[in-house]
């Protein structure tokens, strides 16, 4: 197919969890066929960012239950595990949370079985030109025309505290676990490693880095707090969403989302695993905030805390989440500016109830959270978005 000579039915920008689920849904619900669908994504294969981040933090089990996955049938993952002869240890309580390895194998089976890799265009989407008959998506090397467009970009850029940026510029060994270039092999094989953060990613990272030769200190602004969920399961259905969507003030919706998310919490299994490492002397937690980091010598840094306490370390890993601003980068910023698109005071888009932001341009993932709610960026958020987007497109 010559990109410039034909008009596709659908293009999805983003080939992560959301883009992959949506492409699967479009085909399996017979909304379109493979020849009329493309997924634009800069990586070599689907789910690259997902696999990188989950590997970086040392995830072993998902926080979500077995019914949250990339297939349309709720018990597809469970059936797959049974057919594959997986042990019961592939799921843990509560809610039969699947292992990461099982989730990824199941996802790969869906991608292979439904030919989703063949839909991929390896490139960056850099500009969207909307039109009456079709929209044009410009990439680094081509342009593609489509009747319908879904923007399913991820969570944006990692959050770097100012002290960490300054320290890195001075030569300190500082990495962010959510950065695509993160490499744990660059950390010292022994000594004191600092992990900064207080949520699941931080504690999982600390556990994955601790060993007999090095101690890991978790620095967080609060003590560890347990919760099985990112947000209450009621946010996945009408229990909370009916009231949420009746709120016309989007600043209030943002406050409701922020309040609903259980930031800085860990599941009980991760909590107890970390406490066991503390008892063994392999991990330590400091409840404080870092004020500055001085480079003493190559491979040796001195942290100063807000409390005026100091701690020397040999390497620093940030697990401070993503930047608290609208994701999508220049692609979305240019689109907003050029077409005066509707956004809330927080900068996030205001789509309609079908996640349509512009005529036949739809949103999924974090960009859709003012309509989907606090679960928008999760695996289940892909299913919630698909239900809204495809409601008027089913054959």
Which structural traits does this protein have?
five-stranded parallel beta sheet, globular, alpha/beta, 395 residues, FAD/NAD(P)-binding domain
What does this molecule look like?
- 42% of the residues are buried.
- The model has no long low-confidence stretch (mean pLDDT 96).
- The strands form five sheets. Strands 1, 2, 5, 6, 7, 8, 19 and 20 form an eight-stranded mixed sheet that branches. A five-stranded parallel sheet has the order 9-18-10-11-14, with helices on both faces.
- Helix content is 30%, strand content 23%.
- It has 395 residues and is of the alpha/beta class.
- The chain is built from twelve helices and 20 strands.
- The protein folds into two domains: 7-157 and 324-390, FAD/NAD(P)-binding domain, CATH 3.50.50.60; 162-227 and 262-318, FAD/NAD(P)-binding domain (3-Layer(bba) Sandwich), CATH 3.50.50.
- It has helices at 17-28, 48-57, 76-83, 100-113, 162-169, 200-209, 238-245, 250-260, 268-279, 329-339, 369-372, 379-389; strands at 7-13, 37-41, 91-92, 97-98, 120-122, 125-129, 135-139, 143-151, 174-176, 191-196, 214-220, 225-226, 265-266, 283-287, 290-297, 300-305, 310-313, 315-318, 356-358, 361-363.
- Helix 1 crosses helix 12 (379-389) and helix 6 (200-209) runs parallel beside helix 9 (268-279).
